């Protein structure tokens, strides 16, 4: 019974490891502070390949703007009442897209009418990378390589190794 429990822990850790290594951080609008007016979010969104499990990063001045997840009707009409979720926390906010669908985000308070809204099409998750693909992973989807992705991969590999050793011993 004990060995079955250990193997289950190892298996769950490996699944989480693969999912975390495969996830990316996507800067909405292309930069660290681009949730603002005068950004063509439709054009930006059309160029993205975002997958379930990825994280969206919204950077903005929290005194001026916010980020609301809405449905398609709320998006099209810029309705900030009855939103699905307010993801605003501090102006450097992340949101994980967990399923393949179109996500809709707007800025409440009228800026939506000036273009502060984005529809993001999320695709099914990418297949897990092979170990040889993990070296030099570009984990931030604005074209910049990230040390974060490599660090996560390394830490998760170490954690998995420790748990495997624990399960075997």
From TrEMBL:
Domain Phytocyanin residues, every copy: 25-124
PROSITE patterns xrefs: PHYTOCYANIN (PS51485)
Task of the protein: May act as a carbohydrate transporter.
GO MF entries: electron transfer activity
Swiss-Prot/TrEMBL keywords: Disulfide bond, Glycoprotein, Membrane, Signal, Transmembrane, Transmembrane helix
GO-annotated cellular components: plasma membrane
UniProt cross-references to InterPro entries, sorted A to Z: Cupredoxin, Phytocyanin-like, Phytocyanin_dom
Leader sequence residues: 1-23
Family: Belongs to the early nodulin-like (ENODL) family.
Species, as recorded: Populus alba (White poplar)
Transmembrane residue ranges: 148-168
Name of this chain's protein: Phytocyanin domain-containing protein
Cross-referenced Pfam families: Cu_bind_like
Gene3D superfamilies referenced in this protein's UniProt entry, alphabetically: Cupredoxins - blue copper proteins
